[in-house]
Amino acid sequence: MTKGSGNPENIGHQANYSPLTPLSFLQRTAQVFGHHVAVIFEERSWTWAQFANRCYNLAGALAGRGVKSGEKVSILADNIPAALEASFGIPMAGGVINAINTRLDPDAIAFILEHAETRVFLVDRHYAKVAGEAISNCTRNLLVIDIEDAASGSKPTFAQLSYEEFLSEAITDLPAPNLNELDPIALNYTSGTTGDPKGVLLHHRGAYLNAIGNSLSWGLPRFCVYLWSLPLFHCNGWCFPWTIALQAGVNVCVRGVDPNALLDLIEKHKVTHLCGAPIVVRMLVDAANAITTERAPLSIMTAGAAPPSSLLAKASATGFDITHTYGLTEVYGPCAVCEWHPEWDALSQDEQATLMARQGVGYPVVEEIAVINPETMLPVPQDGVTIGEVMFRGNVVMTGYYKNPEATREALSGGYFHSGDLAVWYPGGYVEIKDRSKDIIISGGENISSIEIEEVLYKHPAVSAAAVVAAPHEKWGETPHAFIETVANKSADPDEIIAFCRDHLAHFKCPTRVTLQELPKTATGKIQKYELREKAKALSPFS
């Protein structure tokens, strides 16, 4: 190659290239800010130097037990320090993190352990019962480690040793993994609402970049205090273990999402940031409004189902600064954000809330997010009306589905990741989700967005949570069926709810049935519409 050309022969040399990995964030922070507090749990705390040392010990223990590059280490745990340590210690040993949803039943956990080919299983003693049943249903020869919790009884018989005993085994000459930045760092299983869950493979490069994207897009400051209200098993806590390490922040660990307990921790530790699904935001808003004391500003990142504009307005009035993001497990969690324009500050609160409900534009680390016609693979007009499918391209798209090449080819066909979310596109590239492709209601040949109806339902003063699904109808094929969870101490009449919708929507879009009940939710607060769809289908067709 000619000297001085734009592509020198030594590109990729060890002097000018290093594989991207979020493990580097911990190394830097432990070196520079080692004396700063890294983790708080109950009455205990660890500095970044102490936390890093525990992560190295976990890596050394795994390596000492023969865990090799690419092998899976599963963990079933609440948001406790050991789960944070696993986010670093497992990949330090060359292993792949497999964080398991704590709400799964034993059969589902056993399936994951088998499918992931798990070598080591870290079990929070709080989940000893379900883990024990899963292990008994699993044919693999597992090394099971008990993460101690005195409040949850004694060490289970299925565990070979305790977590602290395991850390004490750490070898001191831990070899540096021969890392390729496209090596897997995590294997996350989707919810599996239509069969066995799919294992999503994520790599070091994507985790590194999306952690930076979180920080840039949220304006996350150095030394932030972050409350772990978001489950760590949910897409590796949206990459926030690595993001908080990047910013030398404080991780405040907590079991569960009791809103009053969270508010106590927020006040006690001067929490500045937390993440959660819209249902968690609603719980915090309702609990905070019941307390009259002043509180410091709190930044909340929410994702998942589009939060209704009424909730966003109420949160803002409560003093919570809401950042609305969007993403999926296949794109490392949130990777799109509703970027705010200064001129929007002059708009009314309702207008601001309507704009804030948009999923927005890609993080700076996202190559492309677009709304595309899945049949022609051409972008739809940015007119806020034409519906297409949200698709992603770039470094924060998954490697693929583990041991499922057919599903991988389908999801990545045409050079994009197909999200399955239907949306419209606005000028400036702003995406607004209208529905999941499976949640669109087709009534008499007309497409009806369940989200549009839910947006109206949330404006009713008695509605705490709402979900709309298709129900069979003799004349129209299907019509909307609304399932409503009411605010505590408030009642609602189904006929009055329907009349309320008819005052705000075209009549063909309004629910023909309303059921009042507690809504089924996942561990991350998402409403499980598939259960409601099955319930609606079982009813006799509405005439």
Automatic annotation (TrEMBL):
It catalyses: 3-(methylsulfanyl)propanoate + ATP + CoA = 3-(methylsulfanyl)propanoyl-CoA + AMP + diphosphate. Residues 452-526 form the AMP-binding enzyme C-terminal domain. The keyword Ligase applies. SUPFAM superfamilies: Acetyl-CoA synthetase-like. It comes from the Bacteria. One of its GO terms (biological process) is fatty acid metabolic process. Keywords: Fatty acid metabolism, Ligase, Lipid metabolism. It is an enzyme of class 6 (ligase). CDD domains: ttLC_FACS_AEE21_like. This is 3-methylmercaptopropionyl-CoA ligase. It comes from Aurantiacibacter zhengii. The lineage of its organism: Bacteria, Pseudomonadati, Pseudomonadota, Alphaproteobacteria, Sphingomonadales.
